[in-house]
Amino acid sequence: MKQVNKYLRKSVWTGLLLVVIAAATLEATGLIQYYFSRKMLTEEARQRAESEMALARQKIESVMTTVETATENLSWTAGLILESPEYFFIPIRRMMETNDIIMDAALAFTDGFYPERGKWFEPLVARRGDGFEEMVLGSESHDYMTAEWFTKPILTGKGSWSEPYFDDIAGMTTVITYSVPLKDTTGAIVGVAAADITMEWLNALMGQIQLYPDSYGTIVNGNGTLLASPPETLKFANPLRYTSSVGDTGWSMSVVIPEESVFGGMKHINTLVLLLQLLGLAMIFLILRSAAKSQIRYQELNEKKQVMESELHIAHGIQMAMLPNIFPPFPERNDIDMFAFLDPAKEVGGDLYDFFIRNDKLYFCIGDVSGKGVPASLVMAVTRSLFRTVSAHERSPLHIVTNMNDSMSDTNEDTMFVTFFCGILDLLNGHLRYCNAGHNGPLLLGDTVRNLPVEPNIPLGIVSGAAFKEQEADLAYGEGIFLYTDGITEAEDKNHNMFGEERVKSVLAGGNGMAKDKLAKLKKAISDFVGGAVQSDDMTTVLIRYMNDRNPDTMERHLILHNDIQQIPQLAGFVEAIAQEKHLDQSLAMSLNLALEEVVTNVIMYAYPEGADGLVDIEAIIRKESIDFLVIDSGTPFDPTTVPAANIDAPAEDRPIGGLGIYLVKSIMDTVEYKRYEGKNILSMTKKI
Amino acid sequence: METKIYKEGDVTTVKFIGRLDTPAAQEVTKEIESVMDAASGTVIMDCSEMTYISSSGLRIFLSLRKAAATKGGEIIVKSISNDIRQVFMMTGFLNLFQIQD
């Protein structure tokens, strides 16, 4: 659990870090993209502005060159006709006719060049709609000699463009003037030829520079005077401004582009990108949150698992407490040495063992419930308590097994079955009675380790009314019976090799070691064999060593018959075997056979209702000087000793057919007693030998 | 258990081979009905090869004995072993039958 918490904490941090990294990456991408987009858009704006300005510059230069050339031509022409000032209007007019752009043009002469005309002489042609107006200017009030357009060419001897100024003559508008020196044939400067152009075309031209919404162009001259700009310009914050010089005029042209016009689209895209980024981040957050939730669920599941594990642990405790687990179990007895262990594969298992002593007889069992885990352990608990309940009033393994099978088959709805082996060891004489129900056969530990012969029979809980066979054997002093479940022989190493019965036999063979030591040795051998492999099945063993060293002077034999008269001949073999072992003579054997037959026949014929299946138990306890027979049935209470004996002295005609049997029994046996005990008829009879 | 029945004139011989225990006696009871009818004559129960008898077997002997008594016949038990003689003795059958070696 600590590890899980650590892992959780770690993964929460990892998640946070992930979000931060993702956000940073997205933001960086956005920034880079913004930066490059901006750079690209700026570059694009610059290129567009440059090309637009180049175009405008061309137009301006073309206009100015035209005006300059025309003015220079006028100056030259006028220089040729200085003697005929009355003709000055002709070349001026022609010049204006061919150059629409020129609003007015004039010749202005130096102070008193034509004395007859006074101090000033300035013939001028002004455009008036589609026509022209000729006039001669120059007066006190219109003293051109102070105007820059006049003084500058004379001073410098070169043509030049004036500052813009308000022209009240030509068209009540702002104009600029190109003026060149006017020379006579000797090259002396006599005046100036000038042409005015309004700034409207330049304003119009600048207004055409509409690269972007609200962008505009401006022109300033070398003195920083604004020559042209659109009528209305807006103030922009951080506008883009591109400037270039216009030819050799000393003017510079600028294109002003509002930031919004260039980057507005990008800002929209940027907003969109930002929104997408936010969406992406939100998704990452949601994914992480759901991951965190599933981790929390995982944690909750883990907690549940922990609770379950602790419950299983408790269940395991309860289960183990059910089984006798204090060893040695019978410290007061020196006729038995036993040990057992149960190692469940999961916390609770389906294996069981049990044992107890009653009347110097050890009742014991081992079982293996099909399946594993909690369901198996429940069946195990039921099986174990059933064993206790049934064996409390049964004295033969066959009856115990049969009863248990019937009870379990009747109630078994989950088709779980139990392989089971049940035995009763008479501690007085080492006689072992046993009945198997589908369990693997135990081993007998004597000088060698050998298999106890067992009838396989079928496991408990499969078929109600199934027939089982009881068997018997005798244990000598020091001999043992080793019971186990298949978890022992089928314990696997990493390569799925099984431990196997041969290994069990070789580990248990030899020596007269205590049961506890032998099982410890076995456990270690299995653990060494298995190595690191996971235990796949419950492992259970019980080792019982018979340690009564008194020379047994009694022996027991058992026979169990069904209430079928055809089974009567089995009695002959039963008695014959006893007779041979005890060296009884033929006559006595026959008498004993006869007495038994009479009693058993009586039970078979009358104890159970017509058609009902019932059993008759026959126990023979052979002592040194006597033989006891016990005939036991679970039928209706009936005491055969109360049946009137036949009168053997009566004449044949008066002899009743019945009564002969019990008469024979009483004649043959030395004592005949009946008792009813725990729902059973028990007839015991003794014959001295 | 095997039973052989044969007639010579008015003498009927029933020979028992083996153990006359309860299930055997149930079998024999059916086979011996014809002998019951012939109980007016002499019936020889040949026990030379009978190894065992229980009360059920004895009842067959008693039934025959009764039938013979009413019909005026005669039952002879022949060649019984000592062990079976013992049983006959215990039950007083020795007094009811004519025993021949």
What is the fold named in CATH at topology level of chain B?
A: Transcription Regulator spoIIAA
Instruction: Tell me how many strands of chain B there are.
Output: 5
> How large a portion of the residues of chain A is in β-strands, by DSSP E?
25-35%
Q: Which structural category do the helix and sheet elements of chain B fall into?
A: alpha/beta
| Rg of chain B | 12 Å
Number of domains of chain A: 4
Average pLDDT metric of chain B: 89
| Category by helix and strand content of chain A | alpha+beta
Helix content of chain A: 40-55%
Could you tell me how far the N terminus lies from the C terminus of chain B, measured between alpha carbons in angstroms? 22 Å
Oligomer: heterodimer
Compute the number of helices of chain A: 13
Low-confidence stretches of chain B: none
Low-confidence runs of chain A (pLDDT<50, min 5 residues)?
none
The CATH superfamily name of the largest domain in chain A is PPM-type phosphatase domain
Tell me what you see in this structure.
The complex is a heterodimer of chains A (689) and B (101). Chain A has 689 residues and is α+β, with helices and mostly antiparallel strands. Chain A folds into 4 domains: 19-76 and 199-284, PAS domain (Beta-Lactamase), CATH 3.30.450; 81-195, Beta-Lactamase; 321-546, PPM-type phosphatase domain (Phosphatase 2c, domain 1); 555-688, Heat Shock Protein 90. Chain A contains 13 helices and 26 strands. In chain A, the strands form 5 sheets. In chain A, strands 1, 2, 3, 4, 5, 6 and 7 form a 7-stranded antiparallel beta sheet that branches. In chain B, 41% of the residues lie in helices and 37% in strands. With 101 residues, chain B is an alpha/beta fold. Chain B is built from 4 helices and 5 strands. In chain B, α4 (82-90) links the parallel β4 and β5 (98-100). Chain B has a single domain (2-100), classed as Transcription Regulator spoIIAA. The model of chain B has no long low-confidence stretch (mean pLDDT 89).
